[in-house]
């Protein structure tokens, strides 16, 4: 009995020391955090809002999402420290890192670090079924196309893609939910979406009216992948009610990012929570099926935050020291 009592006391002492150590590890942690997302009606807002709440509830730090103009603006806000976390696609991230952001020409946004992989952003086109537009080549000259918020991934790349494919159009910007409403009301002809699937605005649209979700031909995919930092992607038919077969498009990877000055221990715990609970992430948004550690290798643009890199390296996902922010 005495031996058991001694062992129990030793275990209790160890737990107290462990708890004290954890408390010390929280030194420098923020009292709150904000995640830069994008417009309402898009995947970034749904994913980012849910993820912020998940982190806040589990780590005991107040957090929430902020509506922004998307990846380009998120890069700028995280770089300056106005936001702690943000979501971005790697194309806009590269342009911002190199000082080519249209929001701040010449400013190299190099105080932004990668934290974990999110999902691929497919570039897809939606039109009303009543328009008769069933392919990109059907889009008439002078058609008004909604490209999402100014500075978003879609707005940055989709107009150039359409020009590459010979489409002549009038450009319209706005939130995804607003553009979906304009499409339904006949105020614009097409919406060119770049967002994780299923896109809330498209799901809402097809409940209210008949739509065509337009894919790309072999030739169109070839032209686009040769000209832009994207790869071929297939939207499963089960994604939308309006699809009766898989839709072939192109896509670009998204990563969660963090200001590089955020404490390592905090970023480690955020990364750990996210990467070790994919079932919870998928319940936030189905696009999170791809928010798994194996996809860390898709990042060839941003340096890794030391806290995130520590978690990946501890779990067998090797991140070279040269790719970790010093």
From TrEMBL:
The record ties this protein, via SUPFAM superfamilies, to: Periplasmic binding protein-like II
Q: Which domain of life is it from?
A: Bacteria
Question: Where does the secretion signal sit in this chain?
Answer: 1-23
Pfam families (UniProt xref): NMT1_3
Q: Which UniProt keywords apply?
A: Signal
NCBIfam families documented for this protein: TRAP_TAXI (TIGR02122)
| Name the UniProt record assigns to this protein | C4-dicarboxylate ABC transporter substrate-binding protein
List the source organism: Marinobacter lutaoensis
């Amino acid at each position: 009995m005495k031996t058991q009592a001694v062992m129990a006391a030793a275990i209790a002492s160890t737990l107290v020391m462990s708890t004290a150590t954890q408390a010390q590890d929280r030194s420098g942690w923020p009292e709150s955090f904000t995640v830069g997302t994008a417009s309402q009606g898009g995947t970034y807002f749904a994913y980012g809002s849910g993820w912020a709440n998940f982190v806040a509830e589990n780590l005991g730090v107040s957090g929430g999402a902020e509506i922004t103009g998307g990846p380009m603006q998120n890069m700028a806000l995280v770089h300056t420290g106005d936001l702690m976390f943000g979501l971005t696609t790697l194309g806009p991230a590269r342009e911002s890192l190199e000082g080519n952001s249209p929001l701040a020409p010449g400013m190299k946004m190099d105080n932004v670090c990668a934290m974990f992989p999110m999902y691929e952003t497919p570039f897809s086109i939606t039109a009303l079924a009543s328009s008769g537009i069933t392919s990109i080549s059907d889009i008439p000259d002078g058609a008004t196309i909604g490209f999402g918020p100014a500075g978003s991934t879609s707005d940055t790349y989709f107009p150039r893609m359409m020009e590459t494919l010979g489409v002549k159009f009038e450009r319209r910007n706005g939130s995804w939910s607003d553009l979906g409403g304009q499409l339904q009301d006949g105020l614009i002809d097409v919406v060119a979406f770049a967002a994780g699937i299923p896109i809330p605005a498209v799901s809402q649209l097809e409940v209210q009216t008949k739509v065509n979700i337009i894919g790309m031909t072999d030739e169109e995919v070839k032209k686009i992948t040769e000209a832009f930092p994207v790869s071929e992607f297939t939207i499963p038919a089960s994604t939308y009610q309006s699809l009766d077969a898989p839709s072939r498009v192109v896509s670009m990877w998204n990563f969660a990012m963090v200001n590089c000055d955020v404490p390592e221990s905090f970023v480690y715990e955020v990364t750990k929570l996210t990467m070790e609970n994919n079932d919870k992430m998928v319940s936030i948004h189905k696009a999170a099926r791809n928010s798994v550690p194996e996809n860390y290798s898709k990042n060839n643009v941003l340096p890794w935050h030391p806290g995130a890199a520590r978690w990946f390296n501890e779990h067998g996902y090797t991140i070279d020291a040269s790719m970790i922010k010093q």
